[in-house]
Structure formats: C-alpha cells, structure tokens
C-alpha cells in the first residue's frame, strides 16, 4: 500500500496544494494533526485538502479537538483518537492531542500522560501508530535541544512494536526519524512523506 503522510499543515495553502497533487498516486493519506491554527480555520483547512480522493486517516493535533475534526472532516476521512481500524489489511491505531500538555494555554487540545497511557492501552497490535506528539527521546527536540516528547507514546511503541510510528507536533524535528526497537519513528511535517507498507 502506498501511503502519503503529513502533519502540521497549519493552513499552509502551498503545502496543501502539493499534498493534493501528490495524493493522486496514494492508496491512503494520513494526516497527523494540526490542520489549522489555535482552533481556528479548521473548515478552511479541510477545504484545502478536499481534492484528495484517496481514503484519509486523521488524528487531531493540539490545534483542533477530536470533536471539531470529526465535525469538519470530509466524507472520505476517518478520524482516529484512541481507536484503531483495519484498512487494506493494515492495522492502524491513532491518538491525537498535545502529549504531554503544551504551555500554549486554554486553546490547546492536550492530554496528560496518564490519559494518553489509558487510551493507548486499547492498542494491542498495530502495523502503524499515528500520534500527533512524538515519543520521548525520538524526533522530539526543540531548537533549544529540549526533548519534549511523550513517555506514554514511547512506552506504547516499545510494547506494541508497530512497523511505523508517525507523528508531528515538534516543528524543529520535521523530517527527523529514529527507532524504538524494530519500529521506525518519523516526524512528518507538512511536505508529505511516502511509505510503502505491505499487509
């Protein structure tokens, strides 16, 4: 299965146009959160992506809540937040939000580590894990060198060992990658990254 994955669109029109164009070759498109800015412009963001004909799997970022994303997503999109599904023979689980909570204030859609751990406990097996936030210690460093990822996500990856763990959130690490056990971890960014994953 040819998968086009991205994160942190933040209403960037040029990036959205590139994703729509590239998606013509995709069997599946994955969006790992932060489609809009500060809970504003989500309908506009979904309109920018409306030319994507392939099935889409989306998780909320900290810039939009799960409920807001479900309400705004188009008919070809499925929102995952603490749940999974099987598509094309691949088991995929998703969890959105800023984990651990961000310093950005009341507008940010965040989860505590304990809440994230409880939701990730529902994932017994997955080929792909989609989270908005990165795992602690991998593709999670700010420009100041601080590791700000989630221990709960790291622990879930270590336990489940999906083939891919896809995330975003930390803009300074867009394109960053690493491994947790046998799992490849990739911080996506808005340009779009291609993966080919067999069932």
Task: Describe the overall structure.
By secondary structure, this protein is of the alpha/beta class. It has one domain (2-196): Metallo-dependent phosphatases (Purple Acid Phosphatase, chain A, domain 2, 4-Layer Sandwich), CATH 3.60.21.10. The protein has five helices and eleven strands; from the N terminus they run βαβαβαβββαβαββββ. It has helices at residues 13-22, 42-48, 66-72, 113-120, 151-160, and strands at 2-6, 28-31, 56-58, 77-79, 83-87, 90-95, 128-131, 164-167, 177-180, 183-187, 193-196. The strands form two sheets. Strands 5-6-7-8-10-9 form a six-stranded mixed β-sheet, covered by helices on one side. The protein has a five-stranded mixed β-sheet with strand order 4-3-2-1-11, covered by helices on one side. A hairpin with a 2-residue loop joins β9 (177-180) and β10. The chain is globular, with a radius of gyration of 15 Å. InterPro entries: Calcineurin-like_PHP_lpxH (IPR024654), Metallo-depent_PP-like (IPR029052), UPF0046_metallophosphoest (IPR051693). Residues 1-194 form the Calcineurin-like phosphoesterase domain. Pfam families: Metallophos_2.
């Amino acid at each position: 299965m040819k998968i086009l994955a991205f994160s942190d669109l933040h209403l960037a029109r040029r990036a959205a146009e590139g994703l729509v164009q590239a998606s013509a070759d995709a069997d599946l498109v994955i969006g790992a959160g932060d489609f809009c800015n500060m809970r504003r412009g989500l309908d506009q963001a979904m309109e920018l992506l409306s030319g994507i004909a392939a099935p889409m799997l989306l998780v909320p970022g900290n810039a939009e809540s799960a409920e807001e994303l479900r309400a705004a997503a188009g008919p070809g999109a499925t929102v995952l937040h603490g749940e999974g599904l099987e598509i094309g023979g691949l088991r995929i689980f998703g969890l959105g939000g800023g984990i651990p909570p961000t310093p950005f204030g009341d507008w940010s859609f965040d989860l505590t580590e304990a809440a994230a751990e409880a939701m990730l406990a529902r994932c017994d097996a997955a080929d792909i894990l989609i989270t908005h936030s990165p795992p602690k210690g991998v593709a999670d460093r700010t420009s100041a060198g601080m590791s700000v990822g989630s221990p709960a996500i790291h622990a879930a990856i270590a336990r489940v060992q999906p083939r891919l763990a896809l995330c975003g959130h930390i803009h300074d690490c867009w394109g960053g990658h690493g491994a947790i056990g046998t799992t490849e971890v990739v911080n996506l960014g808005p340009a779009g990254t291609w993966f080919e994953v067999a069932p």
